[in-house]
Structure formats: structure tokens, C-alpha cells
Recover the amino acids of this structure.
């Protein structure tokens, strides 16, 4: 039953993301736009590149979708509304999302096209940049909760949400999440202005539809992780727990989609330099501060 509810919520969330992203990009709010676009993709012929690596080309969209679904499996929408409450849930989420890199490099390589390959290698640069900025804030969150279970992490925030307890970790995690989901201004793997779609350039029809659906699910999973780790998950007054989760995830998703469109695009080399020189230093400071606070003023 939980699986059906969560999958239904994912489908609705992906539709809302498509509406908001179109609004952020083109300035037009079209409620029926995603449905029409999906029908157009389903009705369009799936064209193959001239000499693709067929295994990589076909597998990449499916692997990207599976990575997003696996990440969603450990995100709780309510105390009893989660697919699997693993004892290592926070690390499982990070491990599942590591396959985003594999899928995008496979997509870029498999199409045997210059634009796709450049997009894939650009994402590798982003991965090197954001990888530690995902893991290190999660470490600090787990320190406070004394657990890697995502439900326990939410419960540990009953007195004070982690966004107030460790704001540095929150900022770093959100920046890393935007890089992982290749959202503007970190959308270099797609870069429609200079790569004509990048990793998606050679995909059409159903394959392109799966790629785009997978990206929306990854965005939702990262928004859900942000809510779980820093915004108290399902905690809140008056409304049912699932409603608070839904509202918070929607707010975080819209903020991530809208914010990047008002910033200049950042080259992967610049992102990498900032992440390693400044980001990792701040992440280490965040872990140290959380440890000191936990010893001196337990909350």
C-alpha cells in the first residue's frame, strides 16, 4: 500500500515539477503543458544515432530512473509512510544517487555524439565537486540523530530543525543537490545554449521521455532528502504528517527550480574549485561545530 501511495505521489510531483520548470524557463504557466509534451514524445519516433553503443544508449535512461526510485525508497513522508526504513538509509540514498553519474556518462558515451559525450564528461566534473558536499553534511546530520535511519533523523528534530542547528550544512547540501540534479546554474551537462541538449541531445521519443521523468524524480528525491535532513520531515502542527512532508517538498523543489534561473551559469572547473577549496573546509567546520554543540548543549 505504501509503495502505491508513494509512486502516485511521485507521479503527481513530477507533473508539478514539469509545470514549474516550464514556468521558470519560459515565463508561461501552462497546466496542460506537461501532458501535451508527454503525448508528443510518446508519439514521436525514437531515432537511433548512426553508430551508438546500443547497450549503454538503451540502459542509461532506465538506470537514471532506477537511481531516482531507489533514493525515494528511504525518504519518509510520515512515520509509517516509507517504502523501506533501512538502518543505513541516509548512506543508501547517497549510494543510490551515485548511479546518476554512471547513467549520464553512459548516455553521453552511448549516443556516440560530440555533444552528448561533452555533457557526460562535464557531469563527471560536477560529481567530483559535489560528492563530498553530499556526504559530509549527512555525516553531521547523523551525528546529531545518532543514527543513519531517515525516520530517526526526522525524530531527532522534534525540538529544533537542523536548518537552525547546522545552517552551514543545509546550504552546502542544497548546493550539492542542485549540482547532482544538474539544475541551473549547474546545468552544464545539458547546456542548451552551447551543447544543444548535451546528454539528451541524441535521445528522442520514449527514451527522451524516460530521461526527463528520471530527472524529475531525482529532483523530488533530493528535495525530500533536504526536508528529511534539515526541515523536520513530517513534523508540524495541525495538518497530517504526510501533508507537511508534501508542502515542504513542494516548497524546496520550487525554490531549487526558480533560484538557478537568476544566477549566471557556473563552469564545472569553477564549481570544482569552489567546492574543494571552500565547500569542504566549511563542511569540516560544520562537523566540528555540530560535535562541539552536541557535547556542550545537547539538543
Amino acid at each position: 500500500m505504501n509503495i502505491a501511495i508513494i509512486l502516485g505521489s511521485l507521479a503527481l510531483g513530477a507533473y508539478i515539477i514539469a509545470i514549474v520548470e516550464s514556468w521558470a524557463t519560459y515565463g508561461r504557466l501552462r497546466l496542460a503543458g506537461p501532458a501535451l509534451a508527454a503525448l508528443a514524445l510518446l508519439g514521436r519516433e525514437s531515432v537511433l544515432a548512426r553508430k551508438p553503443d546500443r547497450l549503454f544508449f538503451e540502459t542509461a535512461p532506465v538506470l537514471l530512473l532506477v537511481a531516482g526510485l531507489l533514493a525515494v525508497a528511504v525518504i519518509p513522508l510520515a512515520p509509517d509512510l516509507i517504502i523501506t526504513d533501512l538502518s543505513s538509509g541516509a548512506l543508501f540514498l547517497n549510494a543510490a544517487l551515485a548511479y546518476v553519474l554512471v547513467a549520464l556518462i553512459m548516455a553521453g558515451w552511448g549516443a556516440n555524439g560530440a555533444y552528448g559525450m561533452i555533457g557526460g564528461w562535464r557531469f563527471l566534473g560536477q560529481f567530483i565537486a559535489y560528492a563530498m558536499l553530499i556526504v559530509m553534511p549527512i555525516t553531521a546530520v547523523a551525528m546529531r540523530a545518532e543514527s543513519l535511519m531517515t525516520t530517526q533523523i526526522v525524530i531527532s528534530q522534534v525540538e529544533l530543525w537542523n536548518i537552525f542547528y547546522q545552517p552551514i550544512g543545509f546550504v552546502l547540501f542544497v548546493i550539492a543537490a542542485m549540482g547532482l540534479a544538474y539544475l541551473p546554474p549547474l546545468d552544464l551537462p545539458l547546456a542548451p545554449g552551447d551543447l544543444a541538449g548535451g546528454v539528451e541531445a541524441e535521445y528522442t521519443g520514449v527514451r527522451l521521455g524516460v530521461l526527463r521523468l528520471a530527472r524529475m524524480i531525482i529532483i523530488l528525491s533530493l528535495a525530500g532528502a533536504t526536508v528529511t535532513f534539515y526541515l523536520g520531515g513530517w513534523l508540524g502542527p495541525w495538518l497530517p504528517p504526510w501533508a507537511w512532508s508534501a508542502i515542504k517538498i513542494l516548497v524546496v523543489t520550487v525554490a531549487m527550480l526558480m533560484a538557478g534561473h537568476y544566477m549566471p551559469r557556473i563552469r564545472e572547473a569553477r564549481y570544482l574549485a569552489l567546492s574543494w577549496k571552500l565547500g569542504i573546509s566549511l563542511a569540516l567546520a560544520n562537523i566540528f561545530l555540530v560535535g562541539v554543540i552536541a557535547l556542550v548543549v545537547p539538543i
Notes: The longest helix spans residues 114-145. The mean pLDDT is 84. The two ends are 35 Å apart (CA to CA). The chain is about 70% helix and 0% strand.
